[in-house]
Design a protein that fits this description.
The complex is a heterodimer. By secondary structure, chain A is mainly β. Chain A is built from two helices and 19 strands. Chain A is globular, with a radius of gyration of 20 Å. Chain B has one domain. Chain B is 13% helix and 36% strand. Classes of the chains: A mainly beta, B mainly beta. The interface between A and B is medium-sized, with 15 and 16 residues.
Amino acid sequence: MSIAIRTAIAAVIALAVAPAAQAHRSWLAPSATVLSGSEPWVTVDGAVSNTLFYPDHVAMRLDGLTAIGPDGAPVQIQNGSTGKYRSTFDLQLKTPGTYKIANASSGMMASYKLGGETKRWRGQEADLATAIPKDATEVQVSRNSRRVETFVTSGAPSTGALKITGKGLELEPITHPNDLVASEKARFKLLMDGKPAPDVEVEVVLGATRYRSKAPEFKVKTGADGVFEVQWPEPGLYWVEASVRGKDAAGVASNAGYAATFEVLPD
Amino acid sequence: MRAMKTPTLFAAVTGVAAVPAAADAAELTVSVEIPRLSVAEYHRPYVALWIERPDETAAVKTLAVWYDTKLAKGEGATWLKDMRQWWRKAGRSMTLPADGVSGPTKAPGKHQAVFTAAQLSGLAPGQYNLAIEAAREVGGREVVRVPFSWPPKAGARPASAKGASELGAISVSTKP
């Protein structure tokens, strides 16, 4: 089977599968985002659930978790544990500035037929070539990446931790993510593999929805430069999500998701 | 009459110290009322006083921060961020404790804070707000603003405002 046909099929499959990926929300919920004093701690919950930010479905796996300190270097996560519905971990902010906490994962998915049976494979790109038997038919391949982030700051906000990796769907803050108040609009830039992601729908959802019949929830779109603007309806902990489906430069179907938790404070 | 000597000497020393300030005797006096609250668990509020432009955009100068300066390991600073407006506009970029700025929390009642021209040096002539924010442990938070102009004009009237929950009457007077 030629590469061209493989990728064409993969693209079709990626589209067909799309709605299922929307079913649950992955989130990180920090105990605080704006901190003062010397070497403060934050504790963070991570889970996958429908209602924000209530862990009632599946705990977030901590394998892909990293914390980046104000100097851009990784910081050790402490006391990590995974329960039935949520994972939890602590982070000490030993130096003043902004920390980015991210859970990122990426890999390839393939499905193919071998001897009349449908097989699935999930792994890293480097192993793809050897993972699929030569006589496999109806091979479909897609590249998947997912990134869930949140931000916390001790003292004055800084930007050293905010650098993007250039891989998958990412957010580059224009408004600092720990300088958000309900009375001011915030602007962020969405990037796909380091390049502006235009015309992408971004979902904004307010947490603590259990005690109201309807939570503020709306969509905004990125402009040609990948920038989107959010006017927060009220203070609270917000979840912002976007996903981009398409083909990468090599023609392989790609499915990239990004979600972040932002705390918006009252004036 | 040995005992009398000490106060006399003290007065003499302070008299000497006051001389350099006389070059510019202008003063800003802020009267702050911290209300007595009938609550089950009371802690004195953290209070920040700062000067900002009338459009409330940025803090020009922090005048005073009253917080738990005496706690071990500077732990009192943990709750400075609860004075949210001040923290965002000024506090988060400052190093505390700071000489002449930080001080202990105050008990309910009326307090007067006097700031000299030397403390306000660098304040460009114009119209300002004196902003005061109080945040209390197991309590609420409130911000009150009172306008004033600088440098003081002779006969300038004091201005005042009143808080509704965490702050009582606040008045600001200036004298040249």
